[in-house]
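Board work, copied verbatim: Branched-chain amino acid ABC transporter substrate-binding protein
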Amino acid sequence: MRLSAIGCTALLLLAVAACGGRDQGGATGTATSGGQCQGQQTTGITDTSIKLGGIYPLSGPASAYGDIPKGIKAYFDYVNAEKNGIGGRKVEFVVRDDGYQPPKAVEEARRLVEQEQVFALFQTLGTPSTTATWDYANQRKVPQIFVATGASKWGADTEHPWTIGWQPNYISEARVYAQYLKQERPDATVAVLYQNDDFGEDLFGGFKRAIEGTQIKVVAEQSYEVTDPSVDPQMRNLAQSKADVILNVTTPKFGSQALAADAKNTKWNPLHIVNNVAASITVLKPVGFDNVQGIVSSTYYKDPNDPTWQDDAEMKLYKQKMERYAPGADPNVPYHTFGWAVAASFHKAMETAACPTREGLRDSVRNMKGIAVDMLLPGVTMDTGQGDGFPIESMQLMEFKGERWELFGEVIDTRKEFGPLTS
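↓ predict structure ↓
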């Protein structure tokens, strides 16, 4: 069962007792006022500014994710210029490149915390990089907020209260695919391609547990390393299984390679399920839209390519402000939309924080109750609390048709449908 998180009130009381005298940031006014906020950390935040640091693979094998901070920065630039920042504080967002290398992520985290003096690490991307940095962030008592990885440990662990995820976790995502197969292909044989690290093992492991007791069988599995030049050999091996379904658990570069390899093999025609983090239009386009018809994935935020949202107020605002504040970035790239959505989520977390302090942010993200973010799908909200450190746990299936993804079915609240995760 899930490990219990410390309640918001208890954390605030502990922070006041433990952090007295640790006002490090030179903030004035509310950040250093009396009451429950007294003595809490104000490094990186003043009455007029907030400094955040993000770590992304701007280079290397996962560089496609480098589009995410463009969407984040566009949101913050818009809020700074037109909304007087967040609570009157202008946001400075400092981005570092770790090349998807965990040792480099640690180096950049230290630079952001110790040299840049950021208020929080807002997004470290990738399970390996976040795993490498969360001990450091928690030892320094620096919020590591809405990390860009769906590993289940960010929500179940109680040893790292300063770190929390945002997107649906990989085990819950795997459960959704398993449920889909139970309904549509109850006797399916499945071949699995997965990244050989915590990310791949988390989603693949969740899928194997979700199909226990059913007629669905994993008949072949192949892993790859992020340093591999190609997954073509793995795909050839998987094709020999003649499985009905392939579960593609990859990051963008390898997801595109796997889809291309599948398209080339005319003797094998499995249902192709690709995990959310490799389902962007930027992954599919190089393969050719004709070659990815009918593939299945899941999502939880609005797709800028979906005409369903053509007249949606938030989508119209997003596209308008992307054009203004990120003129070189294509607003139809979903990774930009992801960035916008997670930045808006941070905005909500700061607005609901009892204290404009590091402790206040830590406690706010662990005590969210039905927080709506306009770029999330209707019915998807952020909810956390004691024993539940998973902000978003709802998603909807989608199928690629024509030149875009089409949603189908209903939004699935995995908390209600599948029960709590097991630790």
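The longest helix spans residues 334-351.
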